[in-house]
Specification:
alpha/beta, 7-stranded mixed sheet, 3 helices, globular
Amino acid sequence: MQTYFKSTGPDDTEVVAEKLGHELNGGEIIELVSDLGGGKTTFVRGLARGLGSHDKVRSPSFTIANEYRTGELTLHHFDFYRLDDPGIVARELAEILTDKKAVVVIEWAKIIGKVLPRAHLVVTLAQTGEQARDITFDYPEDYSYLFDKQT
């Protein structure tokens, strides 16, 4: 299944992600796809706000992972851009992926492809202008509840 949004800038991207965050229940796995500087952290900032987090969202490019408390749930944000081998991180991620009190967001997921379940949400942010993005959500039917109110 697929849903599509146009974003005119970072504020729009955050609003789209915030609306998605309001619908998350825990147990969801989200893969973010875009070029460097494509708006992935901006998207996670909105997602965290939608989940109720007041934490400052930062890119995990150098730390590999960040966690944000959102009341009952924890938002785990992984960035595997700098990894050549997933090693122990893949094992840690495999454990988190089964946690129903976690929402997991992964950037540059190819390196951990064997750990990532087939059924997950893929969010593609494609730059269409200096600030504009096309945001495409590809998801299995199990995730359709995330978009029922938005269509």
